[in-house]
């Protein structure tokens, strides 16, 4: 189950409810601390009084309006208020954070008394072990929260996005750009993904799951964004040791470029992408496979001078070399006197690939000649017939969230009822790697559902070249580069 966005009515209701609950808690807290209770209902002023009660600098009010920092400031103020009213235990702190402001009302309206400013209350003496335990718990909590809401680090394991992204690039991915998702698997070891570090043991309890919501975002996925998402297909990449599959939010991470968004019609003609009939601008570092025909052996230094990695992008044949490179590299090879020709390796338009999406039996497409194919959008309606079911049947069955879907050539039965028209419930995206002839992407396994979107790749913070030595292992020129 997945809810794409909180609608305006929900957001307004939530904010009003939060305001009322927070205000009623503040009203009683302030009265017990000798302040005017009505100030608890006045925005900004209530935080000012809060800071005064707990003994923190009043200028912290400004920090509550600074993204990311405001979370830590608010958390500190929140815990300080509980301490000022005699609530020190771990249970109180956990309930105060998880159930705020409901638990805060319980504290405020119970028989608690104001003790003193939290900053002036003597700290209970703790053992060395307890000090370290609390510090580690707090650090893990903060890291988990930042990783969930704001940003997470990823590493590029394959060359499907070369050269825009290289194997060994470490990225920060913005979760806030498209809106963070609430966890579908709440009982999970913090700071893990599918398994416990270094083992094959699941890091979560498989039988426990919740509906997934997407929180409000700064924007939506746009064409040409570089996107991290959970690979949607239930195959060996997402299979557990027990034969079952990981839940949606813990499926394997992929990173590709979005080349078409929901509702757009995609077509590829001789590797060139067209959207809604218009030719699209290619990524600046896009690569294809070229055949460099020559009778001579080409030294590694020649490849390196043309910015081609001879270890990962070159294959030797009797007649020459197959090379993955951008068009600028092909132009460089054409200028070499011992090179006879450089040819882009196109699959003929009339030849289909057997593993092409959606179904090679109906659509004789390949990686270089593909479509036209319309990307499903929420509310898009299609007639149920053989062609449409061949095109969209797997998407309806696997990603639309129905209990039961049966497809029989030109018939569609959902939850026991045969239907003649189908209306999509989600938005979808078409993803492709910039290394166009060496990318496992939507051309082969289909659309990415909206609920699988994780975030937008923001910038490279570190890059390692495994073939380098000592300090040359670090690609210094790539550090803190933005992603185009």
Kindly describe this structure.
The chain is globular and about 90 Å long. The two termini are 33 Å apart. The protein folds into three domains: 123 residues, no CATH class; 161 residues, Umud Fragment, subunit A (Ribbon); 106 residues, Peptidase S8 propeptide/proteinase inhibitor I9 (Alpha-Beta Plaits, 2-Layer Sandwich). It is an alpha+beta fold and 484 residues long. Strands 2, 3, 5, 6, 20, 21, 22 and 23 form an eight-stranded antiparallel β-sheet that branches. Helix content is 26%, strand content 21%. The longest helix has 25 residues.
Give a quick precis of the structure.
This protein has about 475 residues and is of the alpha+beta class. Helix content is about 25%, strand content about 20%.
Secondary structure layout plus pairing:
Layout: E1 2-3, H1 8-32, H2 45-54, H3 60-63, H4 69-84, H5 90-98, H6 102-109, H7 128-149, E2 151-155, E3 169-174, E4 212-213, E5 226-230, E6 253-260, E7 265-269, E8 272-275, E9 278-279, E10 288-293, H8 300-305, E11 314-317, E12 320-325, H9 327-334, E13 341-344, E14 370-374, E15 381-383, H10 386-399, E16 405-408, E17 411-414, E18 417-419, E19 421-423, E20 428-432, H11 442-445, E21 448-449, E22 453-463, E23 481-482
Parallel strand pairs: 1-4
Antiparallel strand pairs: 2-3, 3-22, 5-6, 5-22, 6-20, 7-8, 7-14, 8-9, 10-12, 10-13, 11-12, 15-19, 16-17, 17-18, 20-21, 22-23
């Amino acid at each position: 189950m997945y809810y794409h966005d909180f609608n305006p009515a929900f957001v307004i209701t939530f904010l009003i409810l939060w305001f009322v609950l927070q205000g009623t808690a503040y009203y009683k807290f302030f009265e017990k601390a000798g302040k005017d209770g009505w100030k608890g209902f006045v925005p900004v002023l209530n935080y000012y009084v809060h800071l005064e009660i707990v003994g923190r600098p009043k200028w912290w009010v400004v920090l509550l309006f600074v993204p990311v920092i405001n979370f830590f400031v608010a958390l500190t103020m929140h815990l300080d208020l509980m301490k000022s009213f005699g609530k020190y235990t771990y249970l109180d702190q956990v309930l105060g954070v998880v159930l705020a402001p409901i638990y805060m009302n319980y504290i405020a309206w119970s028989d608690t008394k104001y003790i003193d400013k939290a900053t002036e209350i003597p700290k209970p003496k703790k053992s060395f072990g307890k000090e370290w335990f609390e510090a580690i718990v707090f650090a893990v909590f903060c890291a988990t929260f930042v990783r969930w809401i704001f940003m997470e680090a990823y590493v590029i394991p394959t060359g499907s996005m070369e050269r825009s992204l290289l194997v060994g690039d470490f990225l920060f991915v913005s979760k806030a750009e498209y809106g963070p998702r609430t966890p579908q698997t709440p009982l999970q070891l913090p700071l893990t993904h599918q398994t416990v570090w270094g083992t094959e043991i699941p890091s979560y309890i498989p039988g426990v799951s919740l509906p997934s919501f997407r929180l409000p975002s700064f924007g939506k996925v746009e064409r040409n964004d570089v996107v991290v998402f959970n690979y949607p297909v239930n195959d060996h990449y997402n299979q557990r040791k027990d034969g079952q599959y990981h839940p949606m939010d813990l499926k394997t991470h992929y990173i590709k470029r979005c080349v078409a968004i929901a509702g757009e019609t995609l077509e590829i003609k001789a590797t060139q992408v067209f959207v809604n009939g218009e030719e699209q601008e290619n990524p600046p570092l896009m690569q294809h496979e070229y055949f460099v025909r020559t009778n001579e052996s080409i030294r590694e230094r020649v490849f390196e001078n043309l910015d081609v990695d001879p270890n990962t992008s070159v294959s030797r044949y009797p007649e020459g070399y197959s090379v993955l490179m951008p068009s600028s590299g092909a132009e460089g090879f054409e200028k070499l006197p011992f090179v006879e020709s450089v040819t882009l390796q196109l699959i003929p338009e009339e030849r289909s690939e057997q593993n092409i999406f959606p179904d090679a039996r109906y659509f004789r497409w390949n990686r270089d000649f593909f479509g036209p194919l319309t990307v499903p959008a929420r509310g898009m309606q299609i007639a149920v017939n053989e062609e449409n079911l061949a095109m969209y049947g797997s998407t309806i069955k696997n990603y639309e969230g129905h209990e039961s879907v049966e497809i029989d050539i030109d018939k569609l039965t959902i939850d026991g009822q045969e239907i003649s028209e189908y209306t999509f419930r989600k938005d979808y995206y078409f993803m492709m790697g910039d290394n166009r002839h060496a990318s496992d992407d939507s051309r082969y396994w289909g659309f990415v559902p909206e609920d699988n979107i994780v975030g937008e790749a923001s910038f490279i913070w570190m890059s390692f070249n495994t073939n380098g030595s000592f300090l040359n292992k670090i690609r210094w020129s790539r550090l803190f580069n933005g992603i185009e």
